[in-house]
Amino acid sequence: MSSIFVSYARRDNDLHALRTIEQTVAQFGEPYIDDLHHERFGTDRHEIVETALSNATIFVAIVTPHYLSTPWTRKEFAVAIARGLPIRTLLPAHHPHGATMPRPGPPGEEPALDFLQQAGVS
């Protein structure tokens, strides 16, 4: 099973949005989403994020307005490039109350993750 590192700007994604993203991405591998999973691995968040990123086989960037404006997301993205990880993007639709949600696929289908399917992750 693939290990998927999910990179996101915290200010653009509340916990509800992150849980929805987790459920969607989990169809294709084991996601690591810092605000949902860090407590399982210890207390040093910097070390936990670096370990999760070094163990990842796929990198998913949740592209929102502030994604590249934080030092952490820029660092995570740079590490993914340096490691040669397959990089995929998820372009969320914005919920009226500020949360971000994955865009749905065609009617009757689960949220679309064609970018992962094209990468051979299923």
Keywords:
globular, 122 residues, 5 helices, Rossmann fold, alpha/beta, single chain
Notes on the structure:
By secondary structure, the protein is an alpha/beta fold. The protein has a single domain, classed as 3-Layer(aba) Sandwich (Rossmann fold), CATH 3.40.50.450. Helix content is 36%, strand content 17%. The strands form 2 sheets. It has a 4-stranded parallel β-sheet. A two-stranded antiparallel sheet has the order 5-6. The radius of gyration is 14 Å and the shape is globular.
In a nutshell, what does this entry contain?
By secondary structure, the chain is α/β, with parallel strands linked by helices.
The largest sheet, given as strand count, sense and whether it forms a barrel, is: 4 strands, parallel
Q: What's the rounded overall pLDDT mean?
A: 77
| Helix and strand element order | EHEHHEHEEEH
Radius of gyration: 14 Å
CATH topology: Rossmann fold
Number of domains: 1
Q: How many angstroms does the end-to-end distance come to? A: 9 Å
Q: Number of helix segments?
A: 5
Portion in beta strands: 15-25%
Unreliable segments of 5+ consecutive residues: 95-122
Q: What is the percent of helical residues? A: 25-40%
Oligomer: single chain
Overall, the morphology is globular
Named CATH architecture: 3-Layer(aba) Sandwich
Class from helix and strand fractions: alpha/beta
Task: Please report the total strand number as a whole number.
Answer: 6
The CATH class is identified as: Alpha Beta
Give the spatial strand order of the biggest sheet. 2-1-3-4
